[in-house]
Design brief:
The chain has one domain (2-172): Porin, CATH 2.40.160.20. Helices cover 14% and strands 64% of the residues. The protein has two helices and nine strands. It is elongated, with a radius of gyration of 17 Å.
Length: 174
């Protein structure tokens, strides 16, 4: 199953890289940026899980953006889907940008341990990204993310109110 997910992620990343090599003037006229990350989310009901993050950034100006963020965490017994609206402040420091962010949204968790159990809860994701610029429109990103939620599952081994994640990926800027 991981092999299928890895091939899908690599295909999406390759498509975004191909699209980013186009005319830079066309990208400058578009206020949207995209990001795709892959990493791990720790301290979930299913312990540490593979997590994929997809995000959109609508740039209000050169330093502030807002947009959706989707975290998909497929595990052995647990699958989590988090959808949130996130605000980001971009702080350029040479060829690196530090991007603190925070937002609010919902998380859906489905646990298949000894029967099926699911829950929907609020989610407050926040953290920071270090974006290393490859060129004007593409950067390699490393994101530390924290999420607060209140997932209540009957078969849980621990409380799932706080998760920590580390993600790595590509971000595409206008």
């Amino acid at each position: 199953m991981i092999d299928k997910w890895l091939k899908t992620i690599l295909a999406i990343v390759a498509l975004f890289i191909f699209l980013s090599l186009g005319n830079s003037k066309a990208w400058a006229e578009n206020p949207w940026g995209l990001g795709v990350d892959l990493g791990f989310l720790a301290d979930t009901v299913d312990d540490t899980m593979l997590t994929m993050s997809f995000q959109g950034d609508y740039y209000l100006n050169s330093k502030f953006s807002i947009g959706p963020q989707i975290l998909l965490s497929p595990g052995e017994d647990l699958t989590q889907l988090t959808v949130a609206g996130v605000a980001r402040y971009h702080i350029p420091i040479g060829s690196v940008s530090v991007i603190p962010f925070g937002g609010v949204g919902f998380v859906y968790a489905d646990l298949d341990r000894g029967g099926s159990d699911d829950d929907v809860s609020y989610s407050f994701p926040f953290g920071a990204t270090a974006a290393f610029h490859i060129n004007r429109t593409v950067s390699l990103a490393s994101t530390l993310i924290f999420t607060f939620q209140d997932i209540e599952l009957d078969n849980r081994r621990n409380n799932d109110n706080f998760n920590v994640g580390m993600l790595f990926g590509f971000h595409f800027h206008p």
